[in-house]
Amino acid sequence: MSNLFIYIHQAFAQHALLAGALVAASCGLIGPFVISRGMAFAVHGTSELAFTGAAAGLLAGGNPVAGAYIGSLAVAGVLGALGAKERERDSTIGVILAFGLGLGVLFLSYYHGFATQATNILFGNIFGVSNDQLLLLLGVCIAALITMLIIYRPLLFASVDPDVAQAKGVPVRLLGTVYLFVLALTVTSAAQIVGTLLVLSLAITPAAAAQRLATKPSSITLLSISFALIASLGGIAASLASGTVKPSIFVTIISFSLYIFARLAGHKPGYKAS
Amino acid sequence: MANFLDTSVLRLSHATLRFGKRTLWSGLNAHVLPGEFVAVLGPNGTGKTTLLKIILGAARLTSGNISVFGMAPGQNNSRIGYVPQQKNFDKFLPIRGRDLVELGINGNRFGWHNHKAAVGQVRIAVSLVKADAYADNPIGLMSGGEQQRLRIAQAIVGNPSLLLCDEPLLSLDLPSQTLITHILDDYRKRTQASIVFVTHEINPILPYVDKVLYIANGKWIIDTPEKVLQSEVLTRLYGSPVEVLRHNGRLLVIGADEAAGNTQGMHHEEHA
Question: What CATH number does the domain containing A191 carry?
Answer without folding.
Answer: 1.10.3470.10
